[in-house]
Amino acid sequence: MSVEDEKIEKARSPFSEAFEMFRRNHAAVAGLIMLILIILAGIFGPMVYAGDPFEMVWAPFSPPGQEGYLLGTDYLGRDLVSMLLHGARVSIAIGLSAALITVLIGITVGAVAGFYGGLVEEALMRFTEFFQVLPTLLFSMVIVALFGASLPMITFAIGVVSWPAVARITRAEFLRIRELEYVTASRASGVSNGKLIFGVILPNALPPIIVQAALMVGSAILFEAGLSFLGLTDPNVVSWGQIIGSNRQYILDASYTVTIPGVAIFVTVLAISLVGDGLNDALNPKLRQR
Amino acid sequence: MKDELLLKVDNLSVRFAVKRGGGWRKKSYLYAVDDVSFEVERGKTLAIVGESGSGKTTTALAVARLVPAFQGSVDLEGEDFLTLEGDKLRQARAKVQFIFQDPYSSLNPRLRAEAIVREPLDSLGLAEVDEKRAIVDRLFKAVGLRPEQQRLFPHQFSGGQRQRIGIARALATQPELIICDEPVSALDVAVQAQILNLLRRLQEEFSLTYLFISHDLGVVQHMCDSIAVMYMGKIVEQADRLSLFNNPLHPYTVALLSAVPSVDKKRRKATRRVLIPGDPPDPVDPPAGCRFANRCPVAQPRCSESEPPLRDVKGGHRVACHLVDESAKSPMS
Amino acid sequence: MTALLKVENLRIELTTRDGVAPVIDDLSFEMNAGETMSFVGESGCGKSMTALGIMGLLPEKVGRVASGTILFDGEDLTRVSDARMREIRGNDISMIFQEPMTSLNPVYTVGEQIAEVLRRHQGLGQRAAWEKAIALLDAVRIPNPRSRVADYPHQMSGGQRQRVMIAIALACEPKILIADEPTTALDVTVQAQIFDLLRDLGRETGTAIILITHDMGAVAEMAERMIVMYAGRKAEEGPVDQVINHPRHPYTKGLISCVPHLMANLSEERPELTEVGGIVPGLREFGRDACLFASRCDMVNDKCRNARPPEVAFKGNQASACWFAEKV
Fold it and tell me: What is the CATH number of the domain that holds C285?
C-alpha cells in the first residue's frame, strides 16, 4: 500500500552511477585507454622481447629507426625498445605498490585519528606532520642509501614519505562522516567500533581516497624516476628513470636516449592524472547532481 | 497497564568542554542538559519542545546513550540504561531506538534499503537469516513501502520514503521506546502528515512509547500526551497536553505559544502576541537566577537572584517560575 | 490604480539532463504598491523560481524566460538590459533569503555590507553611508546599533543576521521586497520578531512584500493575498482569509488540513491528519496538458488526466485552476 507511486527504478548502486559519469568524461576515458595500453605493453612486451634488456645488441648510439632497431640503442648498444618494455613493468609495479603502501598507512592513521579524536588524534596527527615536514626526496634518499637500493626498499621509501596526504584526507572525511546521522543510527543499533570504522564510515570516505591513490601512482613513478636519475636504483633492474639516469651524460649527443623514456613517463603520468581527474568528478556527489 | 512507567529519567546532565579564547586557558563547560528529570508511561508520548540551543536533542541522545551523560540516571524498566555493559547493554539497546531528523543523512548511502532496516538485527544478533528476511518484509509493509523497493539505495527514494525506511529500521528490534528527534521537520508539509499519521498508527499497532522531540508546537500538540518545555538546558514547564496548551503558566511557554502563527482566526484574535526581546544569555556562563529573566516581560528583581525550582502547582502541572502561585495562574495573564 | 507589478503569461524554462522543462508555466498575477502577497506550495513548485525570474537572477545558461512579460512600473523586466536590471535589483526590488548564515559575507563587517549597498545605489559618501547603516540597524531593532555596526556576521545570532539582511534589502527603500522563506531557519520566537518587523516596516515605508513560504500559518498572519503554486502553475489565488476559509482547489485544501495547527481551544479530540499522498511530480512531467495534481487528488477523473484545467473565477477575486473548483 504505497502512497508514493513512481516508476520503479532499477536498483543501481552508487558506484554504477559513478561509472556512468566516468564514461561520459572523454578525457578520462582516453587516459584509461592509454593506461591500459601501457599496462598491456608492460605485461606482454617483455614476452615478445624475451632477451635480457641489458644485453648489448648493436653499436652504441644508433639512432631510432635505423639498422633495424625501432628506437635505436643507448650508450652501451642496448635496445631501447626492450629496455622500455621491461622498464614499464618495473615502473608501474613500483607506482602501484608504493601507492598501496601509502594508502594502507594513510587510511589506518587517518581513520583511527578521525574516528577516536581527542588525544589519539592529537598524537597521530603530530606524528603525521612530522613526516610531512621532512623533505621527501632527501628523506627517501637517506632510506635507500642506508638500507640499500633494492626494488622493495625503493618502493618502501616512496610509500613512507608520501602517506601523510592520504592520512589527512582520510581523517577529514572521518571527522565529517562520523557526525552524520546514519553513523549515529548504527551506533544506536549497537554496531561495534571496528565495524563502524571499516564497515560504515570507510566505504563512504573512499571516493576522495581513491582519487588520491590514483594520483599517487603517478607521483610514485615520477619519484622513482627521480631517485634513479640520481643513481639511487637497483642496477640489476631496468626502469624508465634508470634509463634516463644512465644515459644522462650523453643528453647532448644522443638526446633520444633520454627523451624516449622521458616521454614514456610523461604519457603514463598524464594518463593516470586524467583517470584520477575523471574519478574525482565521477565520485563527487555534488557534480553528479548536475 | 495504566500508569505503568517505562522510562524514568533523573537529574540528567550533559556537559561539553568548550575552549574559550584558544591557547592554554582552563576549559569551561557548557551544560547542554542541566539536571533534567521526567517520566514516560508505557504506550504514551512525551514531547520535549524548545528552541535551538534548549538542549532537547542532547537530552534525547543522552537518553539513548548516544552522548555520554555527565550525571543522572536513565531508568528503563527498572534498570539504569547508562550503567549497563556487554550483553545487557545489547539487550537494552534493542529496547531503545531512534528516528532521526534528516532523512538525507540518516541512511547509509552505500547500503540497500533492506540492509539498512536489517542493520540493528545484524549487529544485535537478534534473529536467524530467514527470520530476518521475514521481519524486513513485514516492516516494509508496516511503513507503507513496496517489497520490491527493498533492493533500492537511499538516493532513489524521496524524503518521505526515506523517513519511512528510518522508521522501519527503528521498529526492527521491537523496541519499547522510540525516540523521535524532529522526525518531520526536514520534510515537505504535505509529506509531514503522512509520517505523523504513520507514527500514530504504529504506536497503536505495536503499543509503542514515544519520546518526541520537536520545535513545532502544532505537531507536538497533535502527537503528544504530555509535554516538557525546555529553555537553556532546563525544563521550565511540564504538564499534560490540555493543561499546557490551554493554560500555559511559564512566561516563556506563553511567549512560545503566542509566537506560533495560526490559520485559526479565533486563535489569532484570542492570543496576544508576546514578543520576547533579545537572545538567550551565554550558555557557558548562565546567569545566577532564572535563565529566562533577562528576556522575561514580567521579571522581578528576585528572578535574577535565585533560580526557581520546578515544582508541582496543580495536579501534575509543574513549572519553574517564582511568579506562579498556588492559584496556578500565569503571571502573564 | 495601475498595478506595481504585473506578470503576464510568464513561462520560465529550465534545461535539464532530460530536456527543457517549464518550471513556471503560464503564470499571471498583479500586485499593488504596499500590498503583501504570499506564494505558497511545497518545494519544487516554482515559488522561488518566480522570485528569481522577477529579480533577473535565473541560473545562467540553464534557466530563461521563454515567453510572457514582467511589467514593473511600466517597464518590462524580461527585456531590459543587464545594466538596467542591476540598477533595479537592490534598489527598486530587493530580496532576502532563507539562510541568514550564508547570505552575508563573513570577511566584512555588517556595517560595511550595508554601507556598500548605499554607496553603490544611492551614491552616498563614506560617512553618510555609515551613519545611514547605523540608522538602518536601529530600524530593524538591533540593540546598540552604534556598537554592533562594526560586528562581523559570525558575532551575531541567526535572527540578528536576518535583520541585517532585511536592513540591506531595505537600505534603498525598494518598492518590492521579496522574502524567500525568511524565517525557515529560525526559531518561532525569532520568527515572530521578524514577521513583526517586516509588517511594521512594510506599513511605514509602503514597500510591497512578496512572502514565499510553505507555512499556511505564516501566510494567514502576514499576507493579504495569496497564490498557491503547484508544479510550476498557479493552482489558486485569492484573499488570504477567504481562501483559507473556503479553498477552491483540492491542493490548497490539502495544504491547509495536512498540518496540525494550534487552535483557539484545544480539546481531547485528535482527528487523523488529511494526507496528500505522493509527492510533487518530477520536472519531466511539467508542462503536460493535464492537471499535474491529478496523481495526488482524490477528486480526479479522466478529464483531469487529459486536459489542463482553465482558471475559474469566483466572487471576491478568488480563482482556482481545477475542473471541479465549484465542488471543492
Answer: 3.40.50.300
**Rounded to 5 degrees, what angle do the CA atoms A236, A240, A242 make?**
45
pLDDT score for A3: 36
**What are the chain B neighbours of C228 within 8 Å (beta carbons)?**
none
Cα–Cα distance between B157 and B166 in angstroms, integer? 12
Per DSSP, which regions of B19-44 are E strands?
28-41
List helix spans (H) across A25-148: 26-48, 80-116, 118-133, 136-147
- Which residue in A1, A10, A119, A182 has the most chain B C-beta atoms within 10 A of its own C-beta, making it the best mutation to test that interface? A182
**Residue B153 and residue B80 in one domain:** yes
Q: Do A4 and C279 touch (CB under 8 A)?
A: yes
pLDDT digits (tens, 9 = 90+) for A246-257: 888 887 877 888
The yes-or-no verdict on residue A4 having pLDDT over 70 is no
Q: How far apart are CA A283 and CA A269, in angstroms?
A: 21
Q: Distance between CA C307 and CA C291 in Å, rounded?
A: 7
Query: Phi, psi at residue B49, to the nearest 5°?
Result: -115, 160
Number of domains in chain B: 2
By C-alpha distance, the chain A residue nearest C17 is A290
Report how far residue A141's alpha carbon sits from residue C274's, in angstroms, rounded to the nearest whole number.
73
Contacts of residue A227, defined as CB under 8 A and 6 or more positions apart, other chains included, come to A137, A140, A141, A144, A154, A157, A158, A233, A241
Using beta carbons and an 8 Å cutoff, which residues of B are at the interface with A? 61, 64, 66, 89-90, 93-94, 96-98, 100-102, 105-110, 112, 119-120, 123-124, 141, 144-146, 148-149, 151-153, 155-156, 158, 160-161, 166, 169, 173, 194
> CA A272, CA A267: separation in Å to the nearest integer?
9
- Please give the Cα distance from A57 to A76 (Å, whole number): 9
Lowest-confidence segment of A61-70, A116-125, A180-189, A220-229 by average pLDDT:
A61-70
Residue C14, CA distances (Å) to B27, C17, C52, C59, C283 in order: 53, 10, 12, 9, 9
C-alpha cell at A38: 601501457
Separation of alpha carbons A53 and A47, rounded Å: 12
The chain-wide mean pLDDT, for chain C, equals 90
Cα→Cα distances A237→A84, A113, A246, Å:
12, 39, 12
Q: Please determine, for residue B188, whether its predicted confidence score (pLDDT) is greater than 80.
A: yes
Where helices occur in B44-188 by DSSP H, the ranges are 56-63, 86-95, 113-124, 129-142, 159-171
Closest CA to C190 of C216, C145, C159, C167: C159
Taking only the tens place, the pLDDT of each residue in B77-88 is 888 999 998 888
CA distance A169 to chain B (A): 20
- Residue ending a domain, choose from C122, C137, C171: C171
Q: What is the DSSP string of C133-158?
A: HHHHHHHTT-SSHHHHTT--GGGS-H
pLDDT tens digits, residue range B140-184?
999 999 998 998 888 889 889 999 999 999 999 999 999 999 999
Residue B2 confidence (pLDDT) above 60: no
Cα–Cα distance measured from residue C166 to residue B307, given in angstroms and rounded to the nearest whole number = 37
* Judgement on whether residues C182 and C292 belong to the same structural domain of the protein: yes
Domains, chain A = 46-288 (1.10.3720.10)
Mean pLDDT of C101-113: 88
pLDDT of C2: 76
Grid coordinates representing C110?
Answer: 555588517
Candidates B322, B286, B315, B290; CA nearest to B304 is: B290
Contact B291, B305 (CB under 8 A): no
Check residue B215 and give its pLDDT: 92
Helix (H, G, I), strand (E, B) or coil at B234: strand
Over residues C238-246, mean pLDDT? 94
In a domain, C326, yes or no: no
